[in-house]
Amino acid sequence: MTAFKETLKVWNAKEADIRMNNDTQQIVNKAWNFAHVLRDDGLSYMAYTEQITFLLFLKMADELTKPPYNRKPIVPPDLGWPSLLERDGDELEVHYRHILEELGKKSGCWGPSSTRHARRSKTRPCCGV
């Protein structure tokens, strides 16, 4: 059973003691550490959550194109997760903003929010941290 399913089971049972496995706790701690760093740099928790959600979307869209799913890509290859992994530093930041702008031009549920956020962000995207 995955850590997520275990957590749902605990919540559904209305048990007060939610225990996360060590790997899950490390991921949560790392995410909050990034949030605190970015907050100190002027990025709100809401903006951070928005960017993390978008990055998770790109990652999961990429994962679904691989076995065992083998689904058709929903994000163009030049704008997908692997395109972020090919870059570092300023080039990564520029490319991430390019992804936000380009996907924002497309019809669909992610476009307008991503474009709006790219324009109002006062700091680097979290993938550039």
Q: At the fourth CATH level, what is the homologous superfamily of the domain at 44-128? A: N6 adenine-specific DNA methyltransferase, N-terminal domain
Order of helical and strand elements = HHHHHH
Number of strands: 0
Give the class-level CATH name of the domain at 44-128: Mainly Alpha
Counting DSSP H or I runs of 4 or more residues, the number of helices is 6
Based on the coordinates given, report the CATH architecture of the domain at 44-128: Up-down Bundle
What is the beta-strand fraction?
A: under 5%
The helix-and-strand class reads mainly alpha
Gap from first CA to last CA: 32 Å
CATH topology call of the domain at 44-128: Ferritin
Mean pLDDT: 75
Q: Features of this protein?
A:
129 residues; mainly alpha; Ferritin; globular; disordered C terminus
Q: Can you walk through the features of this model?
A:
This protein is mainly alpha-helical. The chain has a domain at 44-128: N6 adenine-specific DNA methyltransferase, N-terminal domain (Ferritin, Up-down Bundle), CATH 1.20.1260.30. It has 6 helices and no strands. The chain has helices spanning 3-12, 22-40, 45-63, 81-85, 89-105, 111-120. Helix 5 crosses helix 6 (111-120). The radius of gyration is 17 Å and the shape is globular.
Question: Concise description?
Answer:
With 129 residues, the protein is mostly helical. It is built from six helices and no strands.
